[in-house]
Amino acid sequence: MELFINSSFLYISLRPLNSTAGEKTVYDICKDMPAVIIWYLGLQFINMFLGIPANLMVLWLIHKNKRDSSTSDIFILHLAILDILFCLTPPLELANIVFLTSSNTWYVLRFFYGLKDSSPLFLSCICLDRYMAVVHPITFTNLKDRHHRAVLAILVWLTTLAYAAAKCVGNIVNFEKVFTAMILAAFAFMVLCNITILWVLRQSGPGRDEMHPLKKRAFKMVLIILAIIVFNYFPPVALLPFQEYFSPEVFRCYIHYVAFGLMDFSSSIQPMLYLSKEKLNCCQCGSTQIRVTC
Fold this sequence. Notes:
Elements: H1 7-14, H2 26-29, H3 35-64, H4 73-87, H5 90-99, H6 104-117, H7 119-135, H8 137-142, H9 147-169, H10 176-202, H11 213-239, H12 248-264, H13 266-276, E1 282-285, E2 288-291
């Protein structure tokens, strides 16, 4: 029994590549436990109506403030573009889950699922940039030229598109292990970076209750970001050791949609966090000014 099945591979199991018009829809297969699928689709449409305008606003603010932009803004910009693309999928996803029996449109959805699967890579870049600014400010200052960040963003996009294209094919043996490794590595990296940042900021004052106001705001901001990372990305990570304890039907129609519904909703939470903290996004770390929004 496989340890992990993500969105596309679950849908392949439900919708074989040679499906015919006489086969059942995903909703029909899960008709005995439809509540979570309905919740998932509702969450996806909220994600579309909230995430698209929020991410567009993020793009507009970054463009408007480009002369006073953060070093992390290049990654935030690309993450917003990726999330906008993913937020366009709910109508097609609704049609495929509830109405359509053809497998052809799943190729399109699998490509967009591949884009979303790779979003932790951009989040990891943001967390790395913030980690360097707080923990290694001298090195960060020496690397303040953003050329290497643009190169890193291009490499992430190439990796993302290659992953999404491979996922779109849908018949690569053991390909789900790529997602397993990627999400586990990114989750662990982001949590480690943010915990280290919190520790450094907490230790930055001469006393336990004497932190500089700017650093205190940075501390609270990173704490919120860490909570969101855990909320959005811990559920699929938590499935790894426990999938075998669920029946295939329960995992396919219930556990899967809970975990990935929360992960997908990060497309709305991330830009809303950026927008809510945009006015309070700078702190002083030594002689280096950093943006703490992720």
